[in-house]
């Protein structure tokens, strides 16, 4: 019997709460456009203030076309800050959503597979690995996107409320 990927196994192949879709909002029509790759998204985000996103930056797309995706509650949305530098070649930036949906955590995976969670850890890694001496520490940014509260699933909101009420009872 061949191994089939089921929805459960597909979910396990990605880190819990990881970002699975990248989009940008057009500065003219305000429609959301998907960005095909993480690399394309990082390139656009790294120079967003100098070169804002417009629909016509995507091939064969204009403001007259329907949005690629609608801002709604079918997924949890997070809004990134502009001009975060592109991740250095060989490294990978990961954003992981906390179980309570309160925020994301940012970390980088080095070319050696080591996970670094702070600027100090990146600096130590670069110092310990002279082959990466040309990598600029300023290209590592741990700023995280804002979780849009209106898109957090209702079941999570109920759980958070229940936990807060329980904590308040224990204090009283």
TrEMBL record:
Residues 16-71 form the CW-type domain. Signal peptide: none annotated. One of its GO terms (cellular component) is nucleus. It comes from the Eukaryota. The keyword DNA-binding applies. GO terms for molecular function: DNA binding; zinc ion binding. SMART domains: MBD (SM00391). Residues 77-147 form the MBD domain. InterPro entries: DNA-bd_dom_sf (IPR016177), Methyl_CpG_DNA-bd (IPR001739), Znf_CW (IPR011124). Gene3D superfamilies: 3.30.40.100, Methyl-cpg-binding Protein 2, Chain A. It is found in: Nucleus. SUPFAM superfamilies: DNA-binding domain. This is Uncharacterized protein. Keywords: DNA-binding, Metal-binding, Nucleus, Transcription, Transcription regulation, Zinc, Zinc-finger.
């Amino acid at each position: 019997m061949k191994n089939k990927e089921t929805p459960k196994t597909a979910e396990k192949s990605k880190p819990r709460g990881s970002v699975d879709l990248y989009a940008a909002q057009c500065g003219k029509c305000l429609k959301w456009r998907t960005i095909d790759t993480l690399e394309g998204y990082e390139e656009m985000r790294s120079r967003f203030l100098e070169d804002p996103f417009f629909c016509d930056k995507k091939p064969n797309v204009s403001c007259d076309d329907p949005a690629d995706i609608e801002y709604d509650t079918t997924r949890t949305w997070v809004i990134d800050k502009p001009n975060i530098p592109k991740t250095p070649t060989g490294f990978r930036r990961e954003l992981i959503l906390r179980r309570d949906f309160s925020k994301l955590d940012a970390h980088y995976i080095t070319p050696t597979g080591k996970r670094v969670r702070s600027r100090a850890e990146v600096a130590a890694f670069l110092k310990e690995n002279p082959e990466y001496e040309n990598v600029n520490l300023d290209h590592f940014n741990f700023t995280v996107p804002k979780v849009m509260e209106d898109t957090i699933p209702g079941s999570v909101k109920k759980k958070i409320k229940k936990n807060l009420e329980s904590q308040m009872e224990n204090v009283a």
